[in-house]
Write the structure tokens for this entry.
Amino acid sequence: MKPIANNEASKRTLLAVGSFLLPLLVWCLVSYVPFIWHPKVEVTVPGGIDYFQAGMLVDQTQFADETDYAREQGLALPSGVPANPIYLPAPHQVAQAFYTGFAKQPVQKDAPWLHESLWHSIQIIFWGFVLSSIVGVPLGILAGTYASLGRLTEPFVEYFRYLPAPAFGALAVAILGIYDGPKIAIIVIGTLFQQVLIVANTTRKLEATIIEAARTLGTRGFRLLTRVVVPGILPDLYRDQRILLGWAWTYLIVAELIGTSSGITWYITQQARYQHFDNVYAAIMIIGIIGFGTDLILARLGRRLFPWDRSQDRR
Amino acid sequence: MNPETSYLDQSEEVRARFERINQRETILEVRGLGKRYRSAQGEVEALSGIDFSVRRREFVCVIGPSGCGKSTLIRILAGLDHHTSGEALLDGSRIKGPGQDRGMVFQGYSLFPWLTVKKNVMFGPQMNGRGRDEAEHDAMMWLDLVGLERFADAYPHQLSGGMRQRVAIARALVNQPRILLMDEPFGALDAQTRAKMQTHLIDIWRNIDITVLFITHDLDEAIYLADRILVLKAHPGEVQEIIEVPVPRPRSPEQFNSPEFRATKARLEQLIHPAPEPESEDEQRVKPHLIRFTDVHDNVE
């Protein structure tokens, strides 16, 4: 690579890192600079106020009122430091939660570890996406290749696409029970119909000249599909699948609330119930890290798999 | 230049050559070929009553104004479109669909981007049931002929436009078709590459048993390449004239200024770009109204 291109690349990496650092910086400022926001006061010494306890969070106005009251009554003055509400933990607390989530036994008994919850969620996504793809990809390719099949299937698929997947929750539980079945079903319903349309569209975008060239070279029938259409759309199909996989992740949380709550969603709701918001943030972020991480890996893999497709280079 | 030279005057040599050509067997015979189709504007007659025939190892160019249906004609011959009247015969048998007896080179890049150059050329033989080794052997032979054996393992996107069209020619020829159909194959190339490709194509044609039907809108290209030029006119697409090119072979770029070449070109221009008709009202209405946006003294001419 030329040095200029190299510079370009390192500059791009720098900016990409910056795009993550900027929100982190804002979060740090709000968390660590006492005069930015901090609407609460964390009581350090309760003083003469009988309901104050060390570590308690009270509103600033309330704290001021109580301080005035203590002064009037000649009681010991309470003291405290500015603090943010409990639902906004500081970065270091979330970082710590990350560590304890993986390294230490959960505080509640019989609660799953963070990684156990995650692994369960990943399995749901995996099976949902695989089942959806087994049906959706071939159907999409066929609908995109044969116009009449497309016209026969696509209007219904288009209609079904507008039915919100979570609406099928109760039905899925009635049919598939309360465990993983209905959750996988919701992900399938949420992904499949989009998948058929997107794959059909991608198939239709294949250059007509390429198919015609193959026909003049003696390709006919099914082999036109397997030897020309499928390899021709493969890089775009791969990209579609990457986007759809991201889509499947967005259905995960709703899916996991159906039947018996499970996986990362159960972990999050459980931690929120005990006001362990640092754990909640850690869990939410790890979903993003896994989703984004898989996509990065898949993008890199795509470049290796499809050396002829230059559009894989741009993300 | 001798103003008396007509495109109909043929030297002794050229006349003898046409006699020899006319004694060869007919490869392609088109009789009363027509195509109509329905569009939003109603029934369109794209082609009507096309009659011509092509002899073995003849080089025929088809030329005409845009919309004359020259692309439709070659697509029908390739079996990619259907005609609605008349018939087209290749070696006496009717053309129904695409077949390996006709090779086609498209204007756009029609190479399979996911296959290397070699595998692109192997595609045809493999589709027609040849073994892998045999196909590979043939592919390398044809790549050698177009001078691209060094690029056998490159992908099409790594090649220049001219090289891609060479691969497309090799890919069409490896099936050993009776006729090579070329639909403005050099239309997207720059002038220099185009000239090189024309010379290269003549070299190939000279050395192998192949008949060529070549579509172009470039008059020089048609005269430079063709034995005969089929001139079409538009709306409906009909044969206007079939011109026997009086420029002797072997051809070279120096002949562009010869009297025969100029006379033929003048005739083609007359046929394709007739004296301009008075502008229609519609066209007058869309004439831009130019406003001076620069300083009045700042003249460029």
In short: The interface with chain A takes residues 78-80, 97-100, 102-104, 106, 108-115, 123-124, 127-128, 155-157, 168, 171-172, 175 of chain B (CB under 8 Å). Chain B has a mean pLDDT of 90. The CA atoms of residues 145 and 204 of chain B lie 8 Å apart.
